[in-house]
Write a structure and sequence with these properties.
This protein has 17 helices and ten strands. The protein is of the alpha+beta class.
């Protein structure tokens, strides 16, 4: 209402002015600028109360109305309007650079705006005080020549700052937009073009005022029309944001059709932000995770990202991490919150399940590694302890048997005891080797399998690529025991004549194949040997498959990831 009253007043001032040229055109263009800036400011403030952009638009419209007081025939009213005349370009620069949040980006933009306010307001007061126009009631010292020099400097400075602002806006235009939708790109380009055109034409108008010319009045009319176009482009942006909320309905239909789908892509499409990221709150772990249960962190304040926490009954369910350009789209975010609430809760539960599975898998790996460490310790203790003592005992018995004072009967008994000790030592070595083969740690999987094939109860063909290198210890251990258990089963149950072993690296995966030409029909679930080894492989994210058709032998194939 105040805007309409102001427009009516400015039209009355124009039509009653004794100094205006073509007052009807000037009053219509002034009304055009006032209505577009005030109307857009009211809508922007209502749609985005937290943003400063709406109040800035209103401020620009209000100051423009104040400048129309120069049309008054009353000297005091004229002086008041003249005082704000050059503040308006600074406000326009501020508005266009502050889009869309109402806040200036970085020191450069703040410096441009502050300098424009100083040149526009400070030098305006100075030149008025020096008597740039005789009608002003604020003249302190009548020095019109000095006032004209100040005015020229002011026009040059303000026009230069406006052109610098235009360049800054064009640089922004070259940035890739945060949204992927073609319509949003077009609206954003329209806004940037309208803002840049308005600033450039305003700068040109000030320079034309400096040098004069017959085309000044006509160019001023075109400039005023261009200034009014900028808020209209902004209104188009608001309309586009409102149309974006209509996509929420389609999003809701999509969720009803498949409530278990991954929400990342649908949310990116609705919010028109391909960089959006969804995190889920896991209360059991008091941490955020992605959809697969992997831990993630939300961006810190000042990191150039916006975060929206979605809660249910006072407890956080999920968080949206998105481009801060959309932080003021509260209605759109509220609509997405309401539409995706149940789906996000379901996704959170799935993420929690994956986190528990990941924890269980990690627990299995830790248990296997702990068992392997214990195997190595036992093997080392047997080698360094019991085996060494039996070797020493065997040597002592041999020395006693060869002593001169030992009779024949005692020598025979000592020899028998030494043979028993040797047999016990061999059995202990076999036990230690079964607990953990030292050759595997010392020389690697290829050498350990060569030794294993050589001691097998049947002929074994070993196919290993030349220069087969070392692999991570858990992978080598799992592959070794898998082959060892397979050869033991072949020797006991397969009734086979031959067996074969193959080691192949397929990218980052080790593929182990063990086969025989036996009777087949193996029951892989009957015993605990292969099942336990399969658990070891699966704990490393590997897989084990067994083919054992009756009469056609048995083939075991294991694929074990070796890491990157």
């Amino acid at each position: 209402m105040l805007g309409l009253v102001a427009v009516t007043g400015s039209i009355w001032l124009a039509m009653s002015s004794d100094t205006l040229v073509r007052p009807e055109v000037q009053s219509l263009l002034s009304a055009w600028i006032t209505c577009t800036f005030v109307g857009s400011g009211v809508l922007a403030w209502r749609r985005r109360p937290a943003s400063r952009f709406g109040p800035l638009l209103l401020l620009a419209g209000a100051l423009w109305v104040l400048t129309t007081l120069q049309w008054s025939n009353h000297s005091a009213v004229f002086s008041l309007g003249h005082l704000f005349d050059m503040v308006v370009p600074a406000v326009f620069l501020h508005v266009f650079l502050a889009y869309p949040t109402g806040r200036l980006e970085g020191r450069l933009e703040r410096a441009l705006v502050v300098a424009c306010y100083v040149a526009g307001a400070g030098l305006q007061v100075l030149k008025i005080g020096l008597g740039v126009t005789a009608e002003d009631v604020l003249v302190v010292a009548s020095r019109p020549e000095a006032a004209q020099w100040v005015e020229r400097a002011q026009l040059v400075m303000v026009s230069t700052l406006l052109l610098a602002g235009t360049v800054r806006i064009l640089v922004r235009r070259r940035r890739p937009p945060p949204v992927a939708h073609d319509r949003s790109r077009r609206v954003r380009s329209l806004l940037v073009d309208a803002f840049g055109l308005a600033l450039a034409m305003l700068a040109a108008l000030l320079l034309l005022a400096l040098f004069g010319g017959p085309s000044f009045e006509a160019f001023r009319h075109f400039t005023f029309f261009a200034l009014g176009l900028a808020p209209v482009a902004f209104l188009a942006g608001l309309l586009d944001a409102r149309l974006a909320r209509s996509d929420v309905g389609a999003f809701l239909v999509e969720l009803r059709a498949d409530p278990t789908q991954d929400l990342q892509q649908p949310l990116a499409r609705v919010l028109r932000d391909p960089t959006v990221r969804v995190a889920y709150w896991l209360p059991e772990y008091t941490a955020w995770s992605d959809k697969d249960g992997n831990p993630v962190s939300l961006p810190e304040p000042g990191a150039g990202r916006a975060v929206r926490i979605i809660s249910r009954e006072g407890s956080p369910v999920a968080a949206l991490d998105f481009d801060p350009t959309f932080a003021d789209e509260h209605e759109l975010l509220d609509a997405v919150d309401a539409a995706a609430g149940i789906a996000l809760e379901n996704a959170r539960l799935r993420a929690e399940l994956w986190a528990r599975l990941e924890e269980l898998r990690g627990s299995r790996v830790r248990m296997i590694e702990a068992g392997q460490r214990e195997r190595r310790r036992l093997e080392r203790d047997l080698h360094d302890g019991a085996q060494q003592r039996l070797v020493n005992l065997s040597l002592e018995l041999g020395l006693l048997g060869r002593a001169e004072h030992t009779d024949a009967e005692t020598r025979g008994r000592l020899l028998s005891l030494r043979e028993e000790v040797s047999a016990s030592l061999e059995e202990l070595r076999d036990v230690a080797h079964g607990i953990h083969p030292a050759v595997l740690s010392g020389h690697g999987l290829a050498v350990a399998l060569e030794q294993l094939a050589a001691s097998a109860p049947l002929p074994v063909a070993l196919d290993i690529a030349p220069n087969f290198g070392r692999l991570p210890e858990p992978v080598e251990t799992a592959a070794y025991y898998l082959v060892s258990e397979s050869l033991a089963n072949i020797g006991k149950h397969a009734e086979a004549d031959h067996a074969w072993i193959s080691l192949v690296l397929e990218g980052p995966t080790l593929v182990v194949t063990v086969g025989d030409d036996g009777r087949g029909g193996a029951d892989t679930e009957a015993g605990v040997g292969l099942r336990g080894l399969a658990d070891r492989v699966e704990a490393l994210d590997g897989t084990v498959h067994v083919w054992s058709p009756p009469g056609a032998g048995t083939t075991l194939r294991a694929a074990i990831p070796c890491g990157s």
